[in-house]
Amino acid sequence: MANEFRFEDHPGVMKFKAVAHEAISRLAAQYGFEFSDEYRAFLKAHNGFNFDRLNKAVPLAPGIETFDGISYLFGIDTGFEYNDLRTYLALPGIWDNPFRTFAYPVAEGAGGDPIIQIFKGKAKGKIYFVDHETVPDAGELEEDAEASSPDQALSFLIDVQGCFIEVAKSFSDFINKLVVYDDDGVINVSIRRQLA
């Protein structure tokens, strides 16, 4: 597939120290997350990724449409503050909203927008891009939707607020939709989307 991102094509990119099963489970328990098997497998294999360090790509092939850029895939205790999930979750105001009860971040977009995976409700396993500019505060979400119900809260965030946009059916689908390309000497990684 044209412009497909594959980890093995970028051996010179910063590597992160391995993460133990126990560290993954401790972080999940600390925040009440239920990491998907696919995300756990990614953590054990790569423990994050820094797309800012890519140094080779070809121009975007005709017929490929992309949706937002990706800077990092989160790992646990990576030693690199920008893609470390523990560091990210501890930042004030970053992950203190009600949707932390049914979703966790797996990546960060180029503009600082989180990409999350749902772990409760009908959308379990799906990946969403979150427009951080339009995310309601905790009080607003609780007033307009039952924050305790993942399905109702997600419906509000998608249909009313417009800040959650589905980009993949699963974590592996998300990774498979990543494309890497050179745009006038600048290497980008974006999410492939279907042409309308």
Structure, described:
It is a single chain. Strands 1, 2, 3, 4, 5, 6, 7 and 8 form an eight-stranded antiparallel beta sheet that branches. The chain has 196 residues and is an alpha+beta fold. Strand 4 (114-118) and strand 5 form a beta hairpin. 26% of the residues lie in helices and 23% in strands. The longest helix is centred in the N-terminal third of the chain and has 11 residues, at 21-31. It has one domain. It is globular, with a radius of gyration of 17 Å.
Keywords:
196 residues, alpha+beta, eight-stranded antiparallel β-sheet
List the helices and strands and how they pair.
Elements: H1 21-31, H2 37-45, E1 49-50, E2 65-73, H3 85-90, E3 103-109, E4 114-118, E5 127-130, H4 138-144, H5 150-160, E6 164-168, H6 171-176, E7 178-183, E8 186-193
Antiparallel strand pairs: 1-2, 2-3, 2-8, 3-4, 4-5, 5-6, 7-8
Summarize the structure.
This protein is α+β, with helices and mostly antiparallel strands and 196 residues long. It has six helices and eight strands; from the N terminus they run ααββαβββααβαββ. The model has no long low-confidence stretch (mean pLDDT 87).
Number of domains: 1
Radius of gyration using CA atoms only: 17 Å
- Uncertain parts: none
- The amount of beta strand, in percent, is 15-25%
Quaternary form: single chain
